[in-house]
Amino acid sequence: MRNLSQILSANQNSLDVSMKKTELRKILIEERKVLAENSKPQDWGARQFFRALDLLKLTVQELKKKEQENKIKVACYFPIRNELDIACFASETWLFPAITEDNQIMWFEFGDGKTEYIENKYGIKEKSEEHCFFYSENKPPLLLFVPGLAASQDGYRLGYGGGYYDRFLNKFKNNVTTVFCLPSEKFIFDSLPIDQWDEKVDLVIW
Ligand SMILES: Nc1nc2c(c(=O)[nH]1)N(C=O)[C@@H](CNc1ccc(C(=O)N[C@@H](CCC(=O)O)C(=O)O)cc1)CN2
Ligand SMILES: Nc1ncnc2c1ncn2[C@@H]1O[C@H](COP(=O)(O)OP(=O)(O)OP(=O)(O)O)[C@@H](O)[C@H]1O
Description:
By secondary structure, the protein is an alpha/beta fold.
């Protein structure tokens, strides 16, 4: 596990939480890019997806059955910038995020028959708002694969800084099991800069 203060310079270590997050994002996006030159994000995704199921004590068949019985809904994301790729395992019923103007997350089903994708302001593939819905407590519990750059040993997560998942989890964490897969132990820290709105994830895999 890496020591946070060792990867930031003395100057960076004295920054406030928000600036520290910004500096750390830059460093980690670059490190992940270098790592991706030698191994593919699809391979990281495959390894970590099956490890996640193992740790959750679920086989692929059991997960499918739970999905068919509406006991569970799986959600992930379309990867950008060498994010670990789990979307390559998506079945038609998996959910993907779309972001709204007021910074909320809506969802669409991968195989909903609406084949037209648009790009959001970050260049991420999504569907237009009329084909998306808001998650609510009366829907099946979510098994949510969250994107991000790094985790702390106690389950905090560093994302790109939109706060989308923090806001979503603040509302729905009781209905959601969050799984955060990372490409290697390099992205696990003893601690991370944390704001009061940061939500922990349930399972970190590296
Ligand atoms: N693949 C993927 N999809 C996702 C997320 C994600 O992190 N990864 N999100 C997770 O929330 C949401 C989108 N949030 C995002 C927030 C910021 C940036 C981003 O590129 N930010 C710029 C800085 C922009 C600025 O100047 O404010 C950057 O990091 O360079 C991307 C996605 C929903 N979909
Ligand atoms: N529960 C919340 N209520 C209101 N604002 C929030 C909440 N959670 C996060 N935010 C806002 O989101 C912004 C970004 O938060 P942060 O830097 O922690 O993002 P992140 O966790 O890296 O991003 P993401 O969750 O999108 O991957 C902050 O400026 C904060 O104001």
